[in-house]
Amino acid sequence: MATKTIDRLPDADGSKPKQQSTSNRTADPQVCLRYLVEDEYAAWDKLVRASPQGSVFSISWWVKAVNAQVLGLFMSGRLVAGIPLYYERRMGVKMCRLPKLTQTFGVVMEPLSGKRVTVTNREMEILTIFAKHLAKERVFYQCFHPNSVNWLPFLWHRFQQTSRFTYVLDDLSNLDAIWDGLDSKLRNTVRKAQTLGIEVRECKADTVFALSSKTFARQGLANPFSRDYLARLVDAALTNNSGVCLAAADKRGQVHAATLLVWDPKRTYYLAAGGDPDLRSGGAQSLLVWEAIQFASKRSAAFDFEGSILEPIEHVFRQFGGKQVPYNCIMKFPLWLHTYLLASKRI
Fold first, then answer.
1. If you write DSSP's letter for every residue of 59-95 in order, what string do you get?
2. Chain centre to alpha carbon of residue 78
């Protein structure tokens, strides 16, 4: 395939970077690292669905919705791996980082088979190619899928790592067993909300944004994502039959809590959740999560609570009986920026 040139996506400030070649030849002429073009995304989606590291956040409709692009690895002309990349400019510095409301990106590889040594050798080869290329970035920050345990090639190329955690219900086939696994006080809270007549129904993206904004405001924080950004993600999810907004409301129509769910057959993710701080005593948020789990059981094998690293949220999600799952966040910063992010507790 001839080397092509495509326009890079605009930076966050709206400026458009110079064109860059999508091809980065390695020492092996049969190995090529380049950005995918539009007609290659069907092959990418097939790889994502089959890959142990694949998730809804790496599927092409989500990648496009967040204005990212996929750097693909081709061997003998065949797409074998890739990583979605998103760029924005902050404090005058161009950064390769995770987009908002995106739990993970990371390297996605085709399923590897054979003896353990064969699989490990192949994995190390693929990860080393990406680590060597991404080491050229001045700022890099991504969280990798929980199945991406090996980050050794990134360590060798002077990246750093920290762990994040989520809670996952990894088998939604038996809702009675999941209900029995809930903390007894949490079950009572769910029943209380039901007794009060609170019901969960579909809602608009604006409702989710309003409730999430109230949650951040209660903590003295601005909402980290905009109304338009959330609407764009919701529209893409609905168009691809992979998302829904849900709200818990009482008989008077007051909305107590709301969330966005996105999914693929592997896992449903609980995103952008928020609640009205003046209506916290009714148990609506717990009911909303329980109803979301039931909703997810008809669409995915597992349910990911997402965002479980914050102590108050972690405590609530833990009561649903999920398994604590760690995942790697890989980073590379200039010393001054790393010091600032540590001091401001942003990493």
1. SHHHHHHTT-EEEEEEETTEEEEEEEE-EEEETTEEE
2. 26
Tokens of 167: 């809670």
Comparing 61-75, 115-129, 298-312, the range with the smallest average pLDDT is 298-312
Q: What pLDDT score does 328 carry? A: 97
Q: Which CATH number fits domain 171-321: 3.30.1330.90, 3.40.630.30, 2.60.40.60, 3.20.20.70?
A: 3.40.630.30
The Cα–Cα gap between 10 and 243 comes to: 27
**Rounded Cα gap, residues 77 and 114, in angstroms:** 22
Encoding tokens for residue 29?
Answer: 């002429």
Cβ atoms of residues 93 and 316 within 8 Å: no
pLDDT of residue 347: 58
The pLDDT tens digits of the residues spanning 82-97 come to 999 999 998 788 999 9
Q: How far is CA 332 from the centre of its chain?
A: 19
* Residues belonging to the chain: 347
Tell me what the mean pLDDT of segment 216-222 comes to. Answer: 92
Residue 234: partners with Cβ closer than 8 Å, 6 or more residues away: 205, 208, 243, 245, 260
- DSSP code string of 236-262: HHHHTT-EEEEEEE-TT--EEEEEEEE
Portions of the chain given CATH number 3.40.630.30: 5-165+327-343, 171-321
Segment holding 169, helix H or strand E: strand 160-169
> Which residues have CB under 8 Å from 232's CB, separation 6+?
65
* HSE value, Cβ hemisphere, 13 Å, CA-based, for 260: 27
Fold of 5-165+327-343: Aminopeptidase (3.40.630)
